[in-house]
Amino acid sequence: MASTTSKIYSYKFLLPAAVVYLIFFIVPTFLSFFFSLTIWTLSDWKFTGLDNFRIFLTEPSLNVGLRNSLVYAILTCGLKVVLGFLLAAFLSANLKTKGFLRSIIYFPNILSTIAVGIMFSSLMQPSRGLINVGLAAIGIQGPDWLGNPSLALLSVAMVDVWKGVGIAMTIFIAGIMAIPRHYYEALMIDGGSSFHKLRYITLPLSRSSMNSVIMLAFIGGIRSFDLVWVMTKGGPGFTSDLIASIIYKQLQGGFYGISTAGNVVLFVIVSLLAVPMYRFLTKAEVDL
Amino acid sequence: MKRKILRVMVEVIAVALALAIFGIPLSYVVTNAGKTSVEAAQMSIAPAAETRYIKNFSEVLATSNHMLLRAFLNSTIITVVSIAMLIGVSSMAGFVMERRKSRAISWINFLVLAGLMIPPAVVPTIWVLKSIGLYKTMLGLELIEAALAFPFSVLLYRGYLGAIPRELDEASFIDGCSGLDLFVKVIFPLMKPVSATIAIITSISVFNDFVNPLYFLPGAKNVTVQLTLYNYISQYLNKWNLLFADILLISIPPLIFFIVFNKKIVSGMVAGAVKS
User: Fold this and answer.
1) Residue B276: what pLDDT?
2) Complex ipTM over 0.95
3) How far apart (Å, rounded) are the C-alpha atoms in residues A91 and A173?
4) What is the reported pTM?
């Protein structure tokens, strides 16, 4: 049967995939380890050891990206998990308007990031923007969301959550739907409250969807580029620069070696954090 | 009775909140896309004194020698071609990866899973594209889009194939089918639903993609819809009405997809997320 297997399921089927995936993803990834150690003009390179990494990690205008990316990833991921879960729990209940609510919360996902960025740049305009006008109506003086150095990154993160919470919610809803009804019935018979349902059944039994959401949101956040780029360009100054926006700025400036070193730094962070996180999270999973 | 009233109140509050948080920003864009630039500069959500959608749309379309039309054509070609390549490549790969167990396959699996997490290396990819003469070409970008969507797509195919019994393969083999016959005549047609899901989800993300065209398709001739929108930010310099009109125009294709394929988008996305 072994020979039949190799005849029917020939490795030749993998050939087109190998060409596309190897050439356009795997090879560049491996090349990045080498070229991150060089001064590189694309046509020529000179080996410089770990200089690029030293520059990337010590230059204040560059290493700010490292801290910002972590803050951004943790913040957006945390909010998407918490809000997504609460929304999903609420919208799994028997509501007349749940179809409408789910659709409108999911809707921002079909808009492009650039469109969302432009939209909120306008809404967050400090004096006339709708957000601050609304706040003024209830007597609060709104800040300069995107112009204040200590606020800009957080403002962009909030917009990211606005756009992405629908995906988290949808994944959680699927997880909650898969929880057998009789757990809830048993709890009702024992006289448990709605809070007990949420705390002792829905939350622990949504573990696997929670893992998916955490991984997706965290990796999405740490790689994020376009929303910051369209809303602040990393400014004011470098205060909202992320690793990915610095990679692009170095690319524009022609510093290909440093740009590639940034890519390797991103690779290392994703591997160091995401792989153990994935292991840890899947270990804590419960079977239904 | 009391419970019922409470329930209605909760629903009313929930809908009001959702409208405030998600509805107002969206209707703000729609309303202001139909104003004059002076009126839109007031940034108000009030209805336009006189709606001029047609005028604004045609002004956006006429900008820089009808660049947006060119961009629409480019984005459509890029989306269609990259999805055709993606479906072809990943359905075959998923087929063998699901059916065969070997050490080589587990290595390939590992590489594919890694691709779900690892960000693409920008400059080395440009270098590879340059070396084979595909930098700044649509074909280059299409191949990149296919390569980057490959891991997600393979996972969906593998998951779906797991539910198609092997007995079918063996029966076809005994009937004299070769591996290629089996795949083309039996397996691929059976996988149509999952192919459709992949095509729909990926088409929205490729059409809306900004980052990869920015990296790999720079240059005035190679515009995509997202690149034009981005370029118009500086070109229109606070003419919010035109920016919003542009947003409305380029959101039409994804919107149609969303309305027509709502269920498929959601289920496919969830399947992909849970499998990974």
Assistant:
1) 46
2) no
3) 8
4) 0.90
